[in-house]
Amino acid sequence: MSNYSICLDIGGTKVLGAIFDGDGKIVHRIKKKTRSSDNSINVEETIVALVNELMSEFGIRSDKIEAIAAGAPGIINNDTGVVLFTPNLPWRNYAIKESIEQVFGIPFFIGNDVNLGVLGEWTFGAAQGLDHVVGLFVGTGLGGGLIINGKLYSGHQYKGAEFGHMILNIDGPQCNCGQRGCLEAFSSKTGMSDYIRQQIRHGRSTMMESAVAEGVFRSKEMKNAYDAGDAVMIEAIDRACMYLAVASGNLVNMFSPQMVLFGGGVMEALGDVFLEKIIAKVNAFCLPSVRDSVTFAVAALGDDSILFGARALILEHRG
Ligand SMILES: [Zn+2]
């Protein structure tokens, strides 16, 4: 019986891998840091190595694996398995599905990581049974995912639901996409790190100084500073939550979802704090008629949302 499956979450800074048994339980897992800044990284080799490592550690061969699936950042055609574009990893029009299937001789599926995160929460987590869900995943970047009428909505050419680049202030801080004032520039770890560095330049002191010295802080460092009552960190979080509330209000008014779901590394670390702060602000930005019929929730599967979404992708293709 080939009823195990292997699911991967290929992030810009880390890779998660898991073996699921036939009942959908994770029976083995691997977590690794990646170096996406190094353009010589071979993503395909990384996936192959990770799959081989999972199989050898768990002690099974590929004939026991039904399928492999992965979530990755970027614009991905999850029907053909072609990665059209990705901002953080060196992939362009890359037919990765065929390559991986040739190596292992088993089906391989791939989709946008946040889309799969929402799919995972919708199939197995906080949003089960709902037909209309807006997902916001807060990490190094800020990704979006959308379930409409009981289906994942990817937009034309899989380019849709980029809620992180909703522009909230045209005079706001610079975003990685080239625009100013995107939700991502305020509320992602990148946006919060930029804000903290700006405050340090203004002469303020914070225990986050070394955490943001070389880029983006880690979620654990954010949590430690928050727990210690660091004023600059709390301010950055309050500001992030204010803009998440504005964006959520806009999305609620546009889509009237049953749930706005918050996931990603930031929520895994401080989800309840973020959720409370967002809910405290969001009413002001929602039309009263739609506010009454939406709930706000944190992802139930935590760091594993995308792994479970990859598993859902395999089940979908099984039919
Ligand atoms: Zn942007």
Write up what this structure looks like:
This protein has 319 residues and is an alpha/beta fold. It folds into 2 domains: 4-113 and 304-318, ATPase, nucleotide binding domain (Nucleotidyltransferase, domain 5), CATH 3.30.420.40; 126-299, 2-Layer Sandwich (Nucleotidyltransferase, domain 5). Helix content is 39%, strand content 22%. The chain has 10 helices and 13 strands. The strands form 3 sheets. It has a 5-stranded mixed β-sheet, with helices on both faces. The protein has a 5-stranded mixed β-sheet with strand order 11-10-9-12-13, sandwiched between helices. A 3-stranded antiparallel β-sheet has the order 5-6-7. A hairpin with a 6-residue loop joins strand 6 (82-85) and strand 7. Helix 6 (219-227) crosses helix 8 (265-282). The chain is globular. The mean pLDDT is 92. Bound molecules: zinc ion. Zinc ion binds at residues 165, 175, 177, 179, 182, 184.
Level of helix content? 25-40%
Overall mean pLDDT stands at: 92
The ordered H/E elements are EEEHEEEEHEHEEEHHHHEHHEH
CATH superfamily of the largest domain: ATPase, nucleotide binding domain
Highest CATH level, the class of the largest domain: Alpha Beta
As for the number of domains, it is 2
Give the biggest beta sheet.
5 strands, mixed
Number of strands: 13
Query: Radius of gyration, rounded?
Result: 19 Å
* Cofactors, ions, other ligands: zinc ion
Q: What's the shape?
A: globular
Q: What are the segments in which pLDDT stays under 50 over at least 5 consecutive residues?
A: none
- Fraction of residues in β-strands: 15-25%
Largest sheet, spatial ordering of strands: 3-2-1-4-8
Distance between the termini: 18 Å
**DSSP helix count?**
10
